[in-house]
Specification:
The complex is a heterodimer. Chain A is α+β, with helices and mostly antiparallel strands. Chain A contains 5 helices and 20 strands. In chain A, the strands form 4 sheets. In chain A, strands 1, 2, 3, 4, 5, 6, 7, 8 and 10 form a 9-stranded antiparallel β-sheet that branches. Chain A has a 7-stranded mixed barrel with strand order 12-19-16-17-14-13-20. The longest helix of chain A has 14 residues. Chain B has 2 domains: 72 residues, Gyrase A, domain 2 (2-Layer Sandwich); 137 residues, Cyclophilin. Chain B is 22% helix and 29% strand. Chain B is α+β, with helices and mostly antiparallel strands. In chain B, strand 1 and strand 2 form a beta hairpin. The chains are: A alpha+beta, B alpha+beta. Chains A and B meet through strand 15, strand 18 and helix 5 of A and strand 1, helix 1, strand 3 and strand 4 of B.
């Protein structure tokens, strides 16, 4: 039962699946992998259901000892993966014998990586998902991040599908420290001043250190917004970009609040939404505005070439 | 059948639809809450978030047809009738301590309103609130109407963290932050009780249409209740 023993925790390691669906009306956030495309790909490479639980590592991954033999695969941020001290490649299924030590290093590009195992990680189910939501201390391992000395158990996985064809055509994002994020106009876009609308694609933003799974705070030349802090709280979703009166946008992540009162100036297009999970403090970012039609076409085209993402 | 509530549905992204009332006039405050219940009952693959003056639906643009969803929403609004009298379901009392240690923005509230501390507390505490909406984070409740005398806009620069149980005010609403997290409202006090308990069978203690009353407690009462 004690299949994985953590020797070190990493900076912020949690159990995630693709999130808690259909409870958003009650104020329950989606949660789940911050980069759902990478976690889905990790599971697909393993031939598993894409909603299977994975280990999400942030900045620096954990080090653990396996007490059972497992195939493993790592997808997402560029972090060195070592089995018994030997470096192994990403996006490649590799056998790790019982007793071996697995270590996920520091991210050089991107922020979060996803590790899938042959068997299924056992996490605390809450409302149909094992995703860890740290603020309410629910899901995952006792609702918290993994600590040194913790054990995780695995259970047999009966699901098996051959995704090989889909995987061969998969396009992975190009990780850099300078991102171009495609966005569409949000419902309160028109509260921006004319000059801010003109500048919004030229503004260079830096990802703030106070960013987390709930929101990525951006710092840049302040946007001018006709906002008096008196909007009625409105629905928010991962990818919504809100702008408080200080003019510094906040891009919402998987743990996004369900309602919020700052104007929703932009929405990250689905084609780039998974990248939110890969932004790290200090990274540079610019926006590129596209039409709703283009956003829809880009996502549909991607879903045709890489069908597993159509379920995300 | 013609709906009592004419709505408009707007595409706000490639996977989000926003529902608003045509006149943007809210005669029936629980319209969007009720609509959300109807949608979730009839559609099992949509994410729905009701607000007080709008509702947003998230759908899967590859697997679902946007026009079919819109049709369904129009049809569902026809079945909503506003009750003749808005009767509140049960009442709940929430203890609050207004000590400086907890009321992070009390100084600013006093400056802004020109009232004394006792007056501010009185305005906040001595009234019955309706639970207008739930959301933001699990267990957060939007309560109204807040006294005009202590009406403040949201913070210009939201705080990254306020402690669990913090009570905030913004515009004509007051609300309870059930968990530690970011907050854009001015903090006026704190409650020791747990509003979102994942260990209970039904973790959602407070729902729209309930009545809520704040009861002022001292710091020692607060600490005693925390220990229980």
């Amino acid at each position: 039962m004690k299949d994985i023993e953590f020797i070190s925790s990493g900076v912020l390691t949690t159990i995630q699946d693709l999130g808690r669906r259909r409870w958003r009306n009650m104020g329950v956030p989606l949660s789940g992998a911050a980069d759902p495309e990478s976690s889905a790909l990790a599971n697909a490479l393993m031939g598993k259901n894409i909603n299977s639980p994975v280990l999400e590592s942030t900045f620096v991954g954990p080090k653990f000892k396996l007490h059972t033999s497992q195939n493993i695969v790592l997808v997402g941020a560029i972090m060195e993966l070592k089995i018994d001290g030997i470096s192994v490649p990403h996006k490649t299924v590799i056998t790790a014998d019982s007793g071996s030590i697995v270590e996920i290093g520091r991210a050089t590009h991107g922020c979060r990586s996803y590790l899938a195992f042959t068997d299924n990680i056992i996490g605390a189910d809450f409302l149909g998902s094992v995703s860890t939501y740290l603020p309410s201390k629910l899901g995952g391992l006792k609702g918290r991040m993994i600590q040194k000395g913790d054990f995780i158990s695995l259970e047999k996985n009966d699901y098996k599908e051959d995704y090989q064809e889909a995987i061969e055509t998969s396009q992975q994002a190009n990780y850099s420290h300078s991102w171009l994020i495609r966005v569409t106009e949000g419902p309160e876009y028109d509260l921006l001043s004319t000059s801010s609308k003109d500048e919004i694609e030229n503004n260079q933003y830096l990802v703030d250190k106070d960013s987390d799974r709930m929101g990525v705070r951006l710092n840049g030349s302040p946007l001018k917004i006709d906002e008096h802090g008196d909007m009625i709280s409105s629905p928010m979703f991962p990818g919504t970009i809100q702008c408080p009166a200080n003019g510094q946008p906040i891009m919402l992540g998987p743990d996004a609040q369900t309602l919020g009162g700052y104007p929703r100036i932009l929405q990250v297009a689905k084609i780039d939404r998974a990248l939110i999970g890969q932004l790290r403090p200090g990274d540079q970012l610019r926006f590129k505005k596209i039409s709703l039609q283009e956003a829809g076409e880009l996502w549909r085209d991607k879903a045709i070439s890489f069908p597993i993402i159509s379920h995300i | 059948m013609v709906s009592q509530f004419p709505i408009v549905i707007e595409e706000i992204s490639e996977d989000l639809l926003q529902v608003k009332l045509k006149e943007n006039k809210i005669d029936y405050p629980y319209f969007f809450w009720q609509l959300s219940q109807h949608i979730l009952k009839s559609q099992n693959n949509l994410e729905v978030v009701p607000g007080e003056d709008s509702l947003v639906i998230q759908f899967n643009p590859v697997l679902q047809d946007r026009e079919e969803i819109k049709e369904e929403i129009y049809k569902l609004t026809e079945s909503i009738d506003a009750p003749v009298k808005n009767k509140l379901e049960r009442s709940i009392t929430v203890p609050v301590c207004y000590d400086d240690e907890f009321a992070l923005d009390m100084k600013n509230i006093l400056n802004h309103t020109g009232l004394s501390r006792r007056e501010v507390i009185g305005e906040h505490c001595h009234r019955k609130y309706e639970v207008k909406m739930i959301g933001f984070t699990p267990g957060f409740v939007y309560l109204g109407e807040l006294s005009e005398k202590i009406k403040l806009p949201r913070l210009t620069n939201p705080r990254p963290f306020v402690p669990k149980g913090s009570i905030g005010i913004a515009n004509n609403r007051t609300g309870i932050y059930p968990i530690q997290g970011p907050a854009g409202w001015s903090i006026i006090g704190r409650t020791p009780i747990n509003l979102f308990d994942t260990k209970r069978n039904d973790p959602f203690l407070i729902l729209p249409r309930m009545e809520l009353i704040f009861e002022q407690i001292t710091k020692s009462e607060f600490n005693a209740m925390l220990r229980d």
